[in-house]
């Protein structure tokens, strides 16, 4: 059990801090693994047998100073109507914990920990259980770095399963998540397999067993297009007053919806109607291969073409029961 040794090391670190604060700060900052880290390993419990309803992934967001947000990525889509009926659907990545990370060689030590209050799961018992399973629920972990520092294995030192996290670009995660929603399939059954294929070729994710052959060459453009459609739909949820033109902001926290320079929150009904028309014309291009050329879609042609290609592949998969779309999403469509 290494935890007792960790406590001794913490006392030594405290003494070092008093004697040489500037030197210690420089050493700790140098070892801070800044970035977004998504869980790709097993959980300590089978959540389906523990009262947790919602499928999720844990995401650690660490800045250069060591401040950490421990968030739970869910697969619900926040909207005013969803939020009104289920408070856990007001957020797409609610906060489990936040705190301060210090790194001492291969040990992570968390301080200044504060537990989040946002509901995570639909069931009342689910949120506290998910927070109890989160990384920052513990004071410290022993960490092993793999894949040239792009994958981290965390050991609590108490015999519980190791936790595994892979580094991922925030924009990439937003796009992949948006692409996952396209066929409207179960996250519990398909997300991890889809993630493995979407990140195939990235060494940080190779433990998931993704197949590069199942990642089509148009995937990046498709994911960018899917995230654009998602961003447009999110804007439609913004309520616009017909009387004074003021935008009413709903109580939603969408951290996993990508931002685009060509999109902005409408300030009046006319602006909103223009975005609705853009959305409709984009769908016509994807599904009917026609649209009003006078309408600026706000999306590059490569992404539009990839959305069309993906739609055709999905139709083919539903009819033939096979194909690249099936492979990418790990589906078993039955041929009609």
What features would you describe in this structure?
The chain folds into 2 domains: 3-167, Lipocalin (Beta Barrel), CATH 2.40.128.360; 188-329, no CATH class. The protein is 38% helix and 18% strand. The protein has helices at residues 3-19, 21-30, 80-85, 126-133, 170-180, 187-198, 219-236, 269-287, 301-320, 324-329; strands spanning 35-39, 56-62, 67-74, 95-104, 107-115, 140-146, 151-155, 163-167, 239-240, 247-248. The strands form 2 sheets. An 8-stranded antiparallel β-barrel has the order 1-2-3-4-5-6-7-8. A two-stranded antiparallel sheet has the order 9-10. Strand 6 (140-146) and strand 7 (151-155) form a beta hairpin. The N and C termini lie far apart (57 Å). The relative contact order is 0.11. The model is unreliable at 1-30 and 239-247 (pLDDT under 50).
Largest sheet: 8 strands, antiparallel, barrel
Strand arrangement in the largest pleated sheet: 1-2-3-4-5-6-7-8
Protein structure class? alpha+beta
Q: Strand-and-helix sequence, N→C?
A: HHEEEHEEHEEEHHHEEHHH
**Number of domain units:** 2
The N- and C-terminal alpha carbons lie at a distance of 57 Å
Got a strand count? 10
Q: Give average pLDDT, whole number.
A: 83
CATH domain fold name of the largest domain: Lipocalin
Question: What would you say the CATH architecture of the largest domain is?
Answer: Beta Barrel
State the helix count. 10
Architecture blueprint of SSEs:
Layout: H1 3-19, H2 21-30, E1 35-39, E2 56-62, E3 67-74, H3 80-85, E4 95-104, E5 107-115, H4 126-133, E6 140-146, E7 151-155, E8 163-167, H5 170-180, H6 187-198, H7 219-236, E9 239-240, E10 247-248, H8 269-287, H9 301-320, H10 324-329
Antiparallel strand pairs: 1-2, 1-8, 2-3, 3-4, 4-5, 5-6, 6-7, 7-8, 9-10
Helix pairs in contact: 1-2, 5-7, 7-8, 7-9, 8-9
């Amino acid at each position: 059990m290494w935890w007792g040794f960790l406590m001794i090391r913490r006392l030594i670190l405290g003494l070092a801090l008093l004697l040489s604060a500037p030197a210690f700060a420089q050493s700790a900052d140098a070892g801070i693994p800044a970035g977004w880290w998504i869980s790709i390993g097993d959980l300590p419990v089978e959540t389906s047998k523990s009262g947790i309803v919602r499928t999720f992934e844990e995401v650690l967001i660490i800045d250069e100073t060591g401040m950490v947000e421990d968030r739970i990525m869910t697969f619900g889509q926040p909207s005013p109507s969803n939020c009104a009926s289920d408070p856990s659907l007001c957020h797409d990545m609610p906060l489990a914990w936040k705190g301060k990370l210090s790194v001492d060689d291969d040990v992570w030590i968390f301080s200044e920990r504060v537990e989040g209050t946002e509901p995570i799961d639909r069931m009342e018992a689910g949120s506290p259980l998910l927070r109890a399973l989160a990384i920052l629920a513990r004071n410290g972990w022993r960490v092993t770095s793999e894949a040239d520092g792009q994958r981290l294995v965390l050991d609590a030192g108490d015999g519980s399963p190791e936790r595994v996290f892979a580094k991922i670009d925030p924009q990439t995660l937003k796009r992949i998540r948006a692409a996952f929603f396209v066929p409207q399939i179960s996250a519990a059954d398909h997300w991890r397999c889809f993630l493995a294929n979407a990140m195939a070729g990235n060494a940080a994710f190779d433990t998931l067993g993704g197949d590069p052959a199942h990642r089509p060459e148009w995937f990046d453009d498709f994911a960018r297009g899917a995230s654009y459609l998602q961003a447009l739909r999110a804007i439609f949820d913004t309520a616009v007053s017909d009387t004074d033109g003021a935008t009413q902001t709903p109580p939603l926290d969408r951290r996993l919806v990508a931002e685009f320079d060509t999109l902005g929150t409408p300030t009046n009904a006319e602006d909103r109607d223009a975005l609705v028309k853009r959305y409709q014309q984009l769908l016509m291009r994807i599904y009917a291969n026609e649209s009003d050329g006078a309408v600026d879609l706000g999306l590059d042609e490569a992404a539009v073409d990839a959305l069309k290609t993906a739609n055709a592949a999905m139709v083919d998969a539903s009819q033939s029961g096979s194909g690249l779309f099936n492979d990418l999403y790990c589906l078993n469509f039955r041929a009609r």
